[in-house]
User: Fold this.
Amino acid sequence: MTEIEHYVAPTSLEQAAEYLRSGEVTILAGGTDLMPQSQSGRLKIKRTLMNIRRVPELNGIAIDNGAIRIGALATMTEIMQSELVKKHLPILIEACDHFASDQIRNAATLGGNICNASPAGDTLVPLLVLDAEVELASKPNGSLSRRRVPLADFFTGPGKTKLGAAELLAGVRIPLPGPARYARFFKFGTRPALDISTVSIGIAGTLKNGALSRVRVAFGAVAPVPMRAPRTEQALEGKRLDPKTIDAIAGVARDEVNPIDDVRASAWYRKELIHNITKRMLGHVAQT
Amino acid sequence: MSLKHDIEFTLNGVKRRATVPVDMSALNMLREVIGLTGTKYGCGEGECGACTILVDGLSLNACLMFAVDCQGRELVTIEGLAADAKADALRAAFVEHGAVQCGYCTPGMVMQASHLLATHPHADAETIKRGIEGNLCRCTGYKKIVDAIAAAGSADPQGAAP
Amino acid sequence: MNVREKKVRFIAPDTLIGKRIQKMDAPEKASGKTRYIHDIDLPGQLYGKILRSTRVHALIKSIDTSAAKALPGVHAVITAADIVNQRPIGVAKDHLPLKTDKVRSLRDEVAAVAAESEQIAMEALQLIKVEYEDLPILTDPAEAIKPGAVLVHPEPHRPDGEEHLKPVGPVAFTGKSDNIAMRFDYCHGDVVKAEADSDVVVEDTFKLHYVTHCCLGVSGMIAEFDASGHLLMYSNTQVPFLHKREFAEYLNMDPGQIRIIQPAIGGGFGSKLDIYPFEVICVFLARAAKRPVKLVFTREEEFISSPTRQPVLLTLRSGCKKDGSLTFRQVHTLHDNGAYTSWGATTPFVMMQTFSSLYRVPNCDYHTIAVYTNNPYAGSFRGYGNLQATFAVEAHMDKMAEAIGMNPLDFRLKNAQDEGEISGQGMDFKSCRFKECLTIAAERSDFRRKHADNIKNRKAPGPIKRGIGIASMLHVGGGAKIYPSDGCGTILKLDDFAQVTLITGASEIGQGSETVLSQLVCEELGLPMSALTVVNNDTAITPWDVGVHASRTTFIAGNSALGAARLAKVKILSAAAKKFECPAGDLDLRGGCVIKAESGEVLTDLPRLMRNMHFQDKAELVMTTFYYEPPSSHQDKDYKGNVSAAYAWGTQVVEIELDTETGIVKMTKVTAAHDVGRVLNRLGIEGQVEGGVVMGQGYALTESLIVEDGVTRNPNFRDYKLVTAPEIPEMDIAFIESMDGEGPQGAKGVGEAPAICVAAATANAIYNATGVRICGLPFTPERVYRALHGKGEKLFLERPGNSA
Assistant:
């Protein structure tokens, strides 16, 4: 039982940002999170329901100034089918392929996945190791302005981000990875998709002489937010990946995470998985 | 009392209007406002696929879609597939291969299969299984559903989207 | 002059039996035209919703429905106080639909609303104020059985000392001095002596968990009283005639004034075999509001409120001699009865059959105690206790084989029964190809070689281990005589165009019974499937059938339909014999015609003969009836007797790949060999086996209803994992036709069989791969991983004093 008083469907970013100034706005993009949350009572839709699906500035996947910009409304299916993403960001394809189901991939948006800020969010871990930034739009002083926030700083808690009340997430910018850039994502599960992650792992780095540099490591579903793992990154940075080193790094990874027990898995098991899968993934890096 | 909104969209090839509460799902609109009961409620959360419909050529869970978001779009439900020749072959394959038992998941399966074959003509068993991973069935164990979809796909000489 | 030349045709013999016959309702279902109960709306109907308890165990101090009643659009709000003489329902009559003074579990129904829309009904529920006083919660049957534990069903007392629940019928009513709901004790032979004579004795405790049916169509009901006060119910019950009689009792009505119509069902699997509070409450609402009421669950409500499979903690002690012959089995089980008694508590009827008779075991001793707790109650679910029992039996078959150094297949073959044997419990295996099931499943899966190879590979490097495991099952396949009658009635007629109407008491629950029955009748009458219409869903029209359970429908309803068809054939051939002046024994029905049996020569087509019979001086319409009661017996008070007219056997070999670094078990292949008597509809029976195997896969690997402190933690598909299409194994299924003498065309029941031994075989496969035996389900990655790392849960069952 909602108490929505207005339904609006702006056709420009400026218009959307204007509506947001009033506060009391719930944004509708793909609806794949909003509808079940509203129906179950977990979330109460505010007085204005704003459908942003007709805002053109939120679409598109294109190269812009040395980065790939993915509009907030890009669906998982669109991302998977984008030639640019296939060529430059295959790790993102991997994440989208394990996302829910075809039906949901056809509707769920990247912006929605980011703003939903689930600790287990499938696209969030790859985006973290890709050094993604979010592009936020608003009209604070009557004119449209944008700011960028590194994704690594964007999440503040389960379901919580630094998105301001009058801000709209317009897109995601990912610096174009260089030629020797290696990036892999692994989502643990018994099914190819339709699973909320028990744990997920992203590893990226520039591969040279059997070692990774400028390393990025991220974990999902083991913390209140999808997290970068600085200690694991430090242990991995520049090290030649022989079995003994890999073992040690996997140990650092296990110690770095502090997951909870929940219906999906216990904390102990999550830590074991982080250790074993990190080890396995680094073994693959060593063979590359 | 929820706020209502007027929408205009195409349903199964016919343009129409509807007045819907803004928080209503497309599933409830189809079943309660429009009266087409072929699209089923299985879970209301997008986990079972029983409510799969086509929207602008893509398969979606109607239970996750806001009815107001149907504005200006083209919807096809299982009732709409009844008029489609390609779908005839798919339906016949479901019947011939024993892919229907209680039948409750079948409309959603057929809708998803139709989309799958449109985008992956001549799909093999592995592709089909991934393609219907969002559709739950409790009766058949999926094998005959996969067989039916594969048969319908391989029988199609052109394999082009309708 | 027009001389119509008489064309003489010859029709070659052909048969429908064993063919791939399309399910008759499939075209409509595939078009989305089938109307399930959710799709049916009656004019003037209201929507019912139930207010459930928010406490696990509490006294109800007060219920205030005034605000709910005042909400515009609300027609009725009821609580137990509004029902005069509310009668308890369920197997033990310990269950009042609307609770009076106490709630005993989270699903308990406290109040109900009928309103103009679902939204209004739900709003009204929010306005009902209930005051509770918490009571201690019992979630562990081992705790609930201890002296001094709080009583879930204490003896009822009113302030004036009067009992306020009157006993109903011959069954005990609620009110006990302890929390024991039911006990079962069985024995054949002497296990003490047998143990002394054994060379090997093994003992383990097994823990079988909560799973739930997850029918894709949620539960629902529509109830309407007509102008004369007669009750019409649209219900997906699997036992419409039993329901008719029971509802009459609960509503204090004449059963003749109750009619049940069964719309197409969105799945059954045993979930609709008992009477549940929501059904009675729906009728109460219809009576109170004087309008039709439709009550449909949400999926969350379905998870929280539906009966589950019976969870069981059991200890099995088994013995054998060093030559491999089994000596004894001794079983103690603790059944968590939940807050109220439904069919789950009676699973021991089936479990003891497995312990006493799956493989030849000369001595068997079985004890169950079912204990009340504040957990969800269990009902009947495909296999009905047999999955749980087989899990234990087949673990020990492997364990004992290993202990005496015998190959697990040979150990089983040594103890497998032959045709004609009668088990210790009195089950008569008139058709039995058990050994063939074992050898065929083993050969087709290359069991011996793989089993040996996998053991060698246990210590090999690499995290992925392969495993292969074997298990068999025994289940009733010709009904189960637990009611006064295990029969089914059929009415059959042919019209002037030789179109057959088959009116059967047997319900269709998606398993294809209507197609198999039609197939049998069409075979008998030589007609195509298109000539037949089935009516099976209206108690005002159809004759009595006890219900769809115990894998009985093909066997019993099939024989009933055959009986009616044979009587029709006699009538037809006798009329044809008169007309064509030859003995009826020379004639047959084939290809829609009356033919000379030996030559195949066509004498006339059947529609023409029907019209001849109808429009002659002494008109004759072909209308026949038949009631089939299977030649099984009721068990005696010691549970002994030949309870079914036939038995189903099967062996399954499960192959897995296990990742020791994550615990993930992938089921790669299932090879099954099922003794089904005779394959009738090949398409249908394959579908039943494939579906049953995948249901068994879910039980083994992925499904678990997590109940903690009386709360269901995962009432949704997101966290209750059904098997999805990419996860299914490769399936190789062989049917063994033992041609049962009593079964229709030799067929036996198979509905439950394929789900029964998957988990047992999987456990053996995991052991084969790793050398680790896991005695609890499901084999989730975490459970397997823990077991491999020595952190598996320790299972223990405290055995109470001898309960004989």
